[in-house]
UniProtKB/TrEMBL annotation:
It holds the Pfam family CoaE. It is an enzyme of class 2 (transferase). This is Dephospho-CoA kinase. PROSITE patterns: DPCK. InterPro entries: Depp_CoAkinase (IPR001977), P-loop_NTPase (IPR027417). Catalyzes the phosphorylation of the 3'-hydroxyl group of dephosphocoenzyme A to form coenzyme A. It comes from Azotobacter bryophylli.
Length: 203
């Protein structure tokens, strides 16, 4: 029987990756859209060539890999450039995700994606779990983690779906405003529940 797919999403700094790691530790097959996004722009792949043609060679590091910081700066300053990049990358990322999900052998698999509800990636899943935290906590955690400035993080939060929008799509919500121990406990509780589901739905 094919595993059903759970979409796991949340804003930057919400703790999606930590939650996904706990699910993975429980034996669930996890596919990370961010990782897929990294694979499609590896040296030698078509996407990287097109990005370099479009933005110029200064978007590459000396070893030929993509300079993510430089690219991020360009696309967050210009809406049209961001749209161009998304149009190029989204179909490629989707192919990568689908191929990886097909390798799953656990009862259900997880697609972790910060852009689950903004892109058509939500069509790949049968159920959506949103990891939710207040925006002030998102900012604080991300600034600590990335050593990035507040303005850049606020721009990223603005570019992602709003908290309300995400929660509107949610079948399940995991409030991650407490400790790491609490998060682990909540993941275990949800995992036990998900194992009882067929096709991601309550029968």
């Amino acid at each position: 029987m094919k595993p059903w797919i759970l979409g796991l999403t949340g804003g930057i700094g919400s703790g999606k990756s930590a939650a996904a790691q706990h699910f993975s530790d429980l034996g669930v097959h996890v596919v990370d859209a961010d990782q897929a996004a990294r694979w499609v722009v590896e040296p030698g792949r078509l996407a990287l060539r097109k990005i370099a043609e479009h933005f110029g060679k200064e978007i590459l590091l000396t070893d030929g890999r993509l300079d993510r910081a430089a690219l991020r700066q360009r696309v967050f300053q210009d809406e049209n450039e961001r749209r161009w990049l998304e149009k190029l990358l989204h179909p490629l990322i989707r192919q990568e995700i689908v191929a990886n999900l097909e390798q799953a052998s656990s009862p259900y698999a997880i697609l972790v994606s910060p852009l689950l509800v903004e892109t058509d990636q939500h069509r790949l899943v049968q159920r959506i779990l949103v990891v939710d935290v207040p925006e002030a906590l998102q900012l604080q955690r991300t600034m600590q983690r990335d050593q990035a400035d507040r303005k850049q993080i606020e721009a990223i939060i603005k570019a992602q779906a709003s908290r309300e929008e995400r929660l509107r799509h949610a079948d399940d919500v995991l409030n991650n405003d407490r400790s790491e121990e609490w998060l682990k406990h909540e993941v275990e509780r949800l995992h036990a529940f998900y194992l009882t589901l067929r096709g991601g739905q309550v029968s």
